[in-house]
Amino acid sequence: MPNLPRIYFDANETDDSGPNAYLLSIFGAQEDIQLLGDSIRPGMRVLLYMADELEVEATLQYNSQNQYWVGHADMSTLRRLV
User: Is the pLDDT of residue 68 over 90?
Assistant: First the structure.
């Protein structure tokens, strides 16, 4: 997988903005997003990960109405780590 910024996610925290859309409002995701600082932007490619379980490439979008980031996963890049 390419060297992409990593953002923690929970596969159970989905968003209704589309298939394979994951909320990035949980604590671990927020920590990773803060580390990205001003470089984070809509359309950015990232690597969503669940520690020791899986990782998947995704494109970020910002939900300005609810003020949270959403990762739209490209399931063709899914990699299971267990």
Answer: yes
Is position 1 within any domain?
Answer: no
Residue 12 and residue 18: Cα distance in Å, rounded?
14
| HSE-up (13 A, CA, CB side) for residue 30 | 5
In angstroms, the Cα distances linking 15 to 20, 36, 49, 54 are: 8, 22, 17, 19
Tokens 């909320």 belong to 23
Is residue 39 exposed (0-12), middle (13-18) or buried (19+ Cβ within 10 Å)? exposed
For residue 40, the enclosing domain spans 6-80
Over residues 23-45, mean pLDDT = 96
